Amino acid sequence: MSVTKTPRKAWTIVALLFGFMMINFADKVIVGLAGVPIMTDLQLTPKQFGLVGSSFFLLFSISAVVMGFLVNRIQSKLALLAMGLVWALVQFPMLGTIGLETLIACRIVLGAGEGPAYPVALHATYKWFPDDRRTLPSAIISQGASIGVIIVVPILTWIITKYSWHYAFGTLGVAGLVWVVIWAIWGEEGQGDVAAKAANVDAVDHIPYGTLLLNPTNLASWCSYFGAYFGLALVLSWFTPWLIKGLGFSQAVAGELTALPFLVGFFVVIGGGWLSEWMMRRGYGSRVARGLLTGASLIIGGLALLAAPYVANAGPKIVLVLIGVAVPSIVYATSPAILGEITPAKQRGAILGINSAVGTSAGILAPYLMGSVIEGAASVAEGYSLGFSVCGVVTLVGGIIGLLFLRPEAQRARFAILKPVVIQAG
Fold this sequence. Notes:
Elements: H1 9-33, H2 35-42, H3 46-55, H4 60-70, H5 76-91, H6 100-114, H7 117-126, H8 135-142, H9 144-162, H10 165-186, H11 209-214, H12 216-246, H13 251-257, H14 260-281, H15 286-307, H16 314-326, H17 331-342, H18 348-360, H19 362-376, H20 380-405, H21 408-416
Helix pairs in contact: 1-7, 1-8, 1-9, 1-10, 1-12, 3-6, 3-19, 4-6, 4-18, 5-6, 5-7, 5-10, 7-8, 7-18, 8-14, 8-17, 9-10, 9-13, 9-14, 12-13, 12-17, 12-18, 12-19, 12-20, 14-15, 14-16, 14-17, 15-16, 15-17, 15-20, 17-21, 19-20
């Protein structure tokens, strides 16, 4: 059997999509970064601010599913271009005087535009890489998020403290427009799916969606993704306010520390992606190199979050929260790779979109839940502790399910014996 070579252009696409995800997560983190000034200016309660954080995810999952099916039929380049344009344009209303309603409306539209971002970016990338070489590029693209936050947070913090949080939103709008122009010029569609023959599902052109969605590996992927994203959603909305209101740091110092979860996550995901790919090349099965690695990372994160409230000093408490939200982030590289392994290429866009939709639906619940817990607690510090404990339980359960049921090789073997189904056009 001939080995499929990775086209040289593939890594250019990875670099462009890395930038795509940089902007994506800068757009997400801005509300949490400017959380205290926003709450002060708009006179928001913790519950109202939690609603702002959750509103971003209202259409996030729905748009991920819709676009997932759509990119099975249209070019990924066009879909990515449209999403980037929406992200940019929706930031500019923030430059003016706004109320809670306008803020929520803009975050809902932004969430609808950003919901499909990661699965569509991966779908586009998988057209350039064979199965055993997908984890590392997936990890690199996913960590555009971390690098974006690490680079942008100090800049946005300076803009917020020197000028206003309004101008920070406008800056992100300009950055989005720049990426759109660059992608329009240099973005390119993969010339077919280079993994079609290597995925070991070539005997099956189409699998009923009910079968694809309800198999144990796919369901476990949903649970693992949900467990990891619950912590990420809390960080996006509440990490900076927690540092200020819960631990007593200034806005400037808290802004600098806000990059920490993403800095740690960068090394975790890139290192984990490399380790997973290395294990695959050394003959370890996907069950071990992807499934067990994913489950173990979530279990470690969940236990760290459960331990955080019992630590008195701020430093160790921050470290435990960082472990709790950063270590599980390896799922963003391994989960799509697992599903890409067991899914026919013609259906992959939809399955990746649905996986992202279910997992990121944690963002609808987590920010609002944290705000409600804080508002109802005896003290702000107690409210944050309880909120992180709930997150720890969710992450731990997701990890246990992943550890037990992420079995891509066994699932792929079951799919391989299905009678091929000829897909009729339309």
